[in-house]
Specification:
- The chain contains 14 helices and 18 strands.
- It is of the alpha+beta class.
- It folds into two domains: 3-94, Nucleic acid-binding proteins (OB fold (Dihydrolipoamide Acetyltransferase, E2P), Beta Barrel); 111-416, Bira Bifunctional Protein, Domain 2 (BirA Bifunctional Protein, domain 2, 2-Layer Sandwich).
- A hairpin with a 2-residue loop joins strand 14 and strand 15 (334-338).
- The protein is elongated.
Length: 428
């Protein structure tokens, strides 16, 4: 039986196993707060109620010892979770050594001991929410008749910018770790029409901010026969579904993380504002007293400032062509901008989705590649998709850890993944 099941039972005999979360002892009593993956519960060992060996073991128990217990559960409002177990049997599976993690230790120490810090209630709560988020992504796309489809991690070409590539020696030839699945997903829409994937992506960005990881999980989709508006609808629908599932499933975990649910509910209850890049610059000027030259990409500071005006994510569309990737489709009514959007999360969490309708014109793609210093012949497999029955299509990528960080209210994206990889950290 797990702890939450025992709490639900409320009375009577229970048998549990778990790890010691806290402990304190006196001459006649040992108080053990037991934890498992579901919850914690206070267990009281009375010297008079157990054998000599069991009492001796109780006196030796330290935090993180693994144990089995039997006893009577009853309600007790003074206990940490409102219930207490009077122990009648105690079996120590393993006596822990002195656990190195306690209150007040540095972020760096906790990062060095991440393999142990995962046992903390806050990390466990994040991991449960993370599992809900991944499940919600699969559920959403499958409900929209998308097929799950995978692309290679080793790739011969770049998609998002050469300066952020991890180069790998592939039997004497240089290849790159995937920044995105996109160039290999686009060919698939001509077979499956609607595809999605959740997979790791790699960006060699020399960034030390609270928003960047060198290895992160990327939820990506690609769809044919649909345009720019539909891409915005899919992005908004996905985020709303994620928030809905977390609020339904993880209320207790949000409490442990001290996350105010009321900051998430607007994203569920309101439509996401959709504004153009040009309109965004106007908002920044008029409401935030921040002047940004047209044609410059929005940096972290501008994203943070504009989001002070909204309590839901927003979708910023029609970015200047000069700051976006070669594959984004030009707006036929204004060749200076593209059918691309970024979804920005509130509370300073920045871009969570990047999307675009894809450029269908073969010659325009070649021209854009040359402008960005790329050799079109290296992209022959990709260019073939524009030669044989090309259709309107597009897609987006969502940084899963950024969504998790926002939903959980985390200070750093590093706490949205079990083992973060950054410019300065590659272990444990």
């Amino acid at each position: 039986m797990q702890i939450q099941e025992a709490i639900k039972q409320g009375t009577g005999l229970v048998k549990l196993h778990g790890w010691v979360y806290r402990e304190r002892k006196s001459k006649e009593l040992a108080f053990i707060v037991l934890r498992d993956s579901t919850n914690i519960i206070q267990c009281v060992v009375k010297k008079s109620n157990v054998s000599e060996k069991e009492w001796a073991d109780a006196e030796k128990i330290l935090i993180e010892s693994s144990v089995e217990i039997e006893g009577e559960i009853k309600e007790d409002k003074r206990a940490p979770t409102g219930y207490e177990i009077s122990v009648t049997k105690l079996n120590v599976i393993h006596f822990s050594e002195v656990f190195p993690i306690n209150k007040g230790q540095s972020v760096e120490f906790l990062a060095d001991n991440r393999h142990l810090w995962l046992r903390s209630r806050k990390m466990t709560s994040m991991l449960k929410i993370r599992s809900t988020v991944f499940g919600a992504i699969h559920e959403y796309f499958r409900s929209k008749n998308f097929y799950e489809y995978q692309s290679p991690i080793f790739q011969s070409v770049q998609c998002e910018g050469g300066s952020t590539l991890f180069e790998v020696n592939y039997f004497g030839k240089p290849v790159f770790l995937a920044q995105t699945w996109q160039l290999y997903a686009e060919p698939a829409v001509f077979a499956l029409e609607k595809v999605y994937c959740i997979a790791p992506s790699f960006r060699a960005e020399k960034s030390k901010t609270s928003r960047h990881l060198t290895e992160y999980w990327h939820a990506e989709m690609e769809t044919s026969w649909e345009g720019f508006k539909e891409l915005q609808d899919y992005g908004e629908g996905l985020v709303k579904h994620i928030v809905k599932k977390v609020l339904e499933t993880n209320a207790e975990e949000l409490k442990i993380l001290e996350r105010d649910e009321n900051k998430l509910k607007p994203a569920l209850e309101k439509p996401f504002p959709r504004i153009t890049y040009t309109e965004a610059l106007k908002v920044l000027k008029e409401k935030n007293n921040l002047q940004v030259e047209w044609g410059k990409d929005l940096r972290t500071i501008e994203e943070d400032e504009i989001m002070k005006n909204y309590d839901t994510p927003i979708i910023v569309t029609h970015y200047p062509k000069q700051v976006k990737a070669f594959y984004m489709k030009e707006d036929p009514s204004d060749s200076k901008v593209v059918f691309g959007y970024d979804m920005l999360a509130p509370e300073g969490y920045g871009e969570v989705i990047g999307a675009s309708e894809r450029e269908p014109d073969l010659e325009k793609i070649k021209e854009r590649l040359k402008e960005q210093g790329e050799e079109p012949s290296n992209y022959e497999f990709y260019l073939d998709t524009r030669k044989y029955g090309s259709v309107q299509h597009g897609g987006f990528g969502m940084g899963v850890e950024r969504i998790i960080a926002w939903v959980c209210g985390l200070e750093s994206i590093k706490d949205a993944i079990p083992f973060p990889r950054t410019m300065l950290r590659y272990k444990p």
